[in-house]
Amino acid sequence: MGTNQGQAELFRAQSHLHKHILNYLSSMCLKSALQLNIPDIIHSHGQPMTLPELLLALQIDSAKSGHVYRLMRLLVHSGIFATTKVPKGEKEEEGYDLTPSSRLLLKHNVPTLSPFVQAMFYTTLVHTSEFLGDWFQGNELTPFHTANGIGFWDYLSQNQEFNTLFNEAMISDSSMINLVIKDFKSVFEGHNLLVDVGGGTGAVARIISESLPNLQCTVLELPHVVENLTDSSNLKFVGGDMFQFIPSADAILLKLVLHTYSDEDCVRVLKKCREAIPSKGKEGKVIIIDIVLNEKNDGHESKEAKLLFDVLMMVYFNGREREEKEWEKLFLEAGFSHYKITPLFGPRSLIEVYP
């Protein structure tokens, strides 16, 4: 009996390893589904699609019917799509339908994460992850340096195709903020001027400025990012370097900025933020939207997503995801006195930091 239990444990371990070894195929199947435009095809059909209907819409040779079935079978198992019964005359056939996950991949929906997913599947990024082991044995700053000979931000500035894709990815990710901003208006209310540091092309600042028309918003970004962007009545763009200078404001916003940097660089940025906000009279604050690791309270899927983001920061940048005590250390080193963390929906939290 003991021998049988030992064998069963070994086979379970084998299956566990197989799953992790082959997990990249799940990602590539998702990439294929986007490449083939399957989520939008099902959505446009207006109801669940049978396999023959999907093949016809995809304009794929019927000889590959079995292959498409196998692709969809894995994506159904992964929760990207679902199956349901579709009436066909007097019979019922299996049809493919969207799930909440695949609805987030619809290209023309708001919000959509389709550009974000496409950016993460960019060949250079996928290729870079293969160099993690080499990087541990070398002296380069990041695995991205090991794989590509330059850092992520330099690569971004030199590759217009990826630069465009990356900016679209950040805009699509920011669109999720629109779902909750109305619930957190109080965080921004009572302030006259907000500076969105590292705010890209202004996706989040635009959402905030439209929700709070009396709030003046400024996006601080590298000059080449904002040079062709147009100001509005309560939103303007300023080219600059956050390590050198941050314009004065009642509140500073840092959305998914600090997790791309080392602790030392985070303290440098936070000190600049501290200089930019008032410390007497009307109290200013720094508003951070970022991941906070909480291994005790995070559910399994949320915890895994956060840990994967942490490795992502290690592979492409010199950054990391942080636990609350690690955030607190940065705030105190930068001269702040207290903070408040409010979990948002999804993996991010909202952190208010005060002088």
TrEMBL record:
Signal peptide coordinates: none
Catalytic activity: a 7-hydroxyisoflavone + S-adenosyl-L-methionine = a 7-methoxyisoflavone + S-adenosyl-L-homocysteine + H(+)
KW Transferase (keyword) present: yes
Domain O-methyltransferase dimerisation: 19-107
Entry GO MF terms: isoflavone 7-O-methyltransferase activity; protein dimerization activity
Annotated catalytic residues: H259
EC nos: 2.1.1.150
GO biological-process terms attached to the record: isoflavonoid biosynthetic process; methylation
Principal EC category: transferase
Matching PROSITE patterns: SAM_OMT_II
Residues covered by the O-methyltransferase C-terminal domain: 132-337
Keyword Methyltransferase recorded: yes
Superkingdom of the source species: Eukaryota
Keyword line: Methyltransferase, S-adenosyl-L-methionine, Transferase
Name of the featured protein: isoflavone 7-O-methyltransferase
Species of the source: Senna tora
Record lineage: Eukaryota, Viridiplantae, Streptophyta, Embryophyta, Tracheophyta
